[in-house]
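User: For a reading group we're discussing how well predicted structures match intuition. Take Adenosine 5'-phosphosulfate reductase. Before you show the prediction, I'll give you the sequence so everyone sees exactly what went in.
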Amino acid sequence: MTLLETDRPALDLEDIVASAAQALEGASALEIIRWAVATFGDRICLTSSMSDAALIHLVSKVKPGIDVLFVDTGYHFAETIGTRDAVQAVYPVNVINVTPSRTVAEQEAALGPRLYGRNPDLCCHLRKVEPLSKALEGYMAWFSGIRREETPSRRDRKVVEWDGRRGMVKVNPILDWTQEDMDNYIADNGVLVNPLHYDGYPSIGCAPCTRPVAPGEDPRSGRWAGTGKTECGIHL
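Assistant: Thanks. Here is the predicted 3D structure of Adenosine 5'-phosphosulfate reductase, as structure tokens, for the group to look at:
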């Protein structure tokens, strides 16, 4: 039984978010995860880009068997698909492959080739944002692996947020982790990592829109390079 299933009067989800965001600010990732699992039970899932399995490793320690949603855009590197398959084999989780409504070929037939180059915002919306939003409809909350230090738009985020666009709760357990924290956790726990990280890709998206990053460059500068775009739209 979760906290939402007790005999207490039903609480508005936005009220839960407001109180939890304040109470859990500064809490450890595991404390945040335990609160979310106790609150939402089987109505919470985890999303992953398969850049690494740090959050998957953390969450599965508290809730084995949790659904992990992976958006297969049709444009991923082979290494990313391999990481997805390895995660399913290694961790006690249920990986769900989420796909867009159109295949790449169908999208190109309807909208022309290389939409990712001509209109990356629309391509991301059709192949990432839209299918993920549909897949999340069966849940009350979702775990995200965003971190404050990654982009300026993430610096003011909360560990527990109201996702108004989807009408659900978003939980960000590793929001305050630095890259050093992430690296140490991965090394200490033998966490699976996408092999592209070792080839100069600190941030990994779709193959046509991701390039290697030179030493000293911003880790996300290889995403949509030269377009001024920094977010796919999932976390806006």
